[in-house]
Structure formats: structure tokens, C-alpha cells
């Protein structure tokens, strides 16, 4: 299905929206993202939201599960009604719980204006109050063709950090016994019981917390800390991501 667009994955080529859509779908399925309340938008839907003459048209195209999600990832380009494909990709992330939009661009602020338009329209669709658009630190490209690859790298890096954060939170909850055997005890009651028990002189768990890893100070996996969202340096280079995507396309084209 994607074999005709596979040539755009080669070094020096500009990724087509079909490749970005393919990789977003791959991440969503393999990482079971919707169950973790992370939604990756297809490029065509993001473009429709930004360019539709009537905002109601875009509303009808939204995925039905969008209101249940905590994080939205939207691939953004500078295309318009006359030039649908555009010439540059960037990433927009919406953190719904804090009503914050985060903008990642591998070419300084090249897509800032189309991103602002997209944010304005998303606020209409989601009935947002006044919001913040944060220009995040992003690793920069050194050519004129890697923007789409960086979009995918930014998205995948953030997704894996979010999943890691969720897993660490679950471990802490389980360790501290915030749920009873039926999962019905409230967090407040559980915390009170744990504190009362651990403070007792005969408690065998009085020193238990000292042996636990301190995740609270690990900014790399704490979404409430701004350092969490910093992508100024990535651990995976664009040319390797191109090879990885090429292998995936070959695998799914068989």
C-alpha cells in the first residue's frame, strides 16, 4: 500500500504525508496508545482542521475517541488550499489536562504561523479557554529534507517518555498499596492508612520507602516538569530512522 511512497524515505527525500500517516498508525497500534489516552492524528485530518472553509467540516472528521484522550499529537505542515503538500513538517502536541500546546520544529520557527492557525481552530473545536502555545527546544536539522523524519522522532521520543512516566506512576501506586484487593479503596484513605501504619513503632515497613527509587526527582520522566518536554538533543539520528521506516514499509508491503 505504501510502496509507491517508499522512495521518499531515502536520504535526501522529503517524507510524504502517507509515510507519516503510516508510521503514526504503526506506533499507535504497536504501543496500544489509545488505551493509554494518547491519540496520533493522521496528517490529512490535521490539514483539514487547519484549512477547512467551515470549521464544522473539520469537527465531523475528528476521531470519535478524541474527547477521551489526554494527549493529542498532530503533524503540521505549511501547506494551504493552493499548495496542499506544503514544504515543511513540524509537530504540535496538545496536553489537554493543562490546556497547553507544545510546538516542535527542526527548522527554528518555520511553521510557527501555520501552527498558530491550527491551535486557534483546535481551541474552537474543543471549546478551549485561553491557552498557552509553548515553543519547545528541538533538535535542528542540517539539511532541507529531514523535517518529516524529525517530526516522527519528536513524536516517538515524547510518546515513549510518556509511557515510561505512566509505568513508573503505576509502580509507585502498587508499591504504596493505593488499591485494595478489589480496587475500591480511595487514594486518600489508602495514603492515610499507609502513613499511620508506617509511623508506628513496630511497623516492619518503617524503612521500606528508603529502598525505593526516587522517581519524584527524575525530571526526565515527569511531565509536570518542563525539562520533560525538552527535545534539544535526540538519541536517534534521522538517517537510522529512515532505514527503520524503509524496512517497515517493505515488511508491510509483502
TrEMBL record:
Its taxonomic placement starts with: Eukaryota, Fungi, Fungi incertae sedis, Zoopagomycota, Kickxellomycotina
SUPFAM superfamilies, alphabetized: Cysteine proteinases
A Pfam family per the record: Peptidase_C48
What protein family does this chain belong to? Belongs to the peptidase C48 family.
GO aspect biological process, one term: protein deneddylation
- Note whether Lipid biosynthesis occurs among the keywords: no
- Its recorded name reads NEDD8-specific protease 2
Q: Which positions make up the signal peptide?
A: none
Q: Which PROSITE patterns match?
A: ULP_PROTEASE
**One GO molecular function term?**
deNEDDylase activity
Keywords (A to Z) from UniProt: Hydrolase, Protease, Thiol protease
Report which superkingdom the organism of origin falls in: Eukaryota
User: Which ranges carry the Ubiquitin-like protease family profile domain?
Assistant: 1-158
Amino acid at each position: 500500500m505504501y510502496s509507491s511512497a517508499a522512495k521518499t524515505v531515502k536520504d535526501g527525500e522529503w517524507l510524504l504525508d502517507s509515510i507519516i500517516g503510516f508510521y503514526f498508525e504503526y506506533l499507535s497500534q504497536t504501543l496500544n496508545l489509545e488505551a493509554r489516552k494518547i491519540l496520533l492524528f493522521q496528517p490529512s485530518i490535521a490539514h483539514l482542521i487547519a484549512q477547512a472553509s467551515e470549521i464544522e467540516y473539520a469537527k465531523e472528521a475528528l476521531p470519535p475517541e478524541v474527547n477521551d484522550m489526554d494527549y493529542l499529537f498532530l503533524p503540521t505542515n505549511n501547506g494551504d488550499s493552493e499548495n496542499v503538500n506544503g514544504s515543511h513538517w513540524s509537530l504540535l502536541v496538545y496536553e489537554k489536562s493543562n490546556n497547553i500546546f507544545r510546538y516542535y520544529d527542526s527548522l527554528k520557527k518555520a511553521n510557527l504561523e501555520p501552527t498558530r492557525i491550527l491551535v486557534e481552530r483546535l481551541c474552537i473545536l474543543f471549546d478551549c479557554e485561553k491557552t498557552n502555545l509553548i515553543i519547545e527546544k528541538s533538535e535542528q536539522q542540517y539539511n532541507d529534507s529531514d523535517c518529516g523524519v524529525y517530526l516522527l522522532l519528536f513524536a516517538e521520543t515524547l510518546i515513549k517518555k510518556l509511557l515510561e512516566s505512566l509505568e513508573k506512576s503505576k509502580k509507585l501506586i502498587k508499591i504504596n498499596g493505593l488499591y485494595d484487593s478489589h480496587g475500591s479503596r480511595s487514594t486518600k484513605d489508602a495514603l492515610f492508612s499507609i502513613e499511620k501504619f508506617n509511623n508506628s513503632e513496630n511497623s516492619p515497613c518503617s524503612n521500606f520507602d528508603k529502598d525505593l527509587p526516587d522517581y519524584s526527582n527524575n525530571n526526565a520522566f515527569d511531565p509536570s516538569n518542563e525539562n520533560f518536554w525538552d527535545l534539544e538533543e535526540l538519541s536517534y539520528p534521522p538517517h537510522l530512522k529512515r532505514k527503520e521506516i524503509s524496512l517497515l514499509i517493505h515488511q508491510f508491503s509483502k
